[in-house]
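Let's practice the habit of predicting before peeking. Look at the sequence and jot down your guess about where helices and strands might fall. Then scroll down.
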Amino acid sequence: MGRIVALLNLLITFSLLMAPESYLKVVSSQELTGSEFFSSINEAKQKVDKAYTLSRERIKESLNGAHLSPSDFLKYLKAPVAGTRTAIRAANYVEAALNILKKKMQNKCPRPFNITGMMKKVGETYDGP
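Done guessing? Here is the structure:
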């Protein structure tokens, strides 16, 4: 059940970001292809999942260790529960995907920019920063 909720939250989070390739453009006449967009999302998901897995393994190892300190136990107790953890993970997916997209776009567009402002629907005008 938890996996279903997590996947549903992930789909909802990225539903606004998911668009056909023709709907994604960059202001500077360069195009952000759909494959770059989706590969960035997949890369972000893998990085965030790996970080979460390592974090949980470290907490479990510290709890199983011979030298359990009160701070280790408090870390475990203060870890977010399922719903909150899913929301935080979804936000981390979005943040990581935007950072990856920003790095990819810096090669195409040398001037400073806002990555969320770079993506727009075809036909809309870019107001700029």
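How did you do? The CA atoms of residues 51 and 70 lie 24 Å apart.
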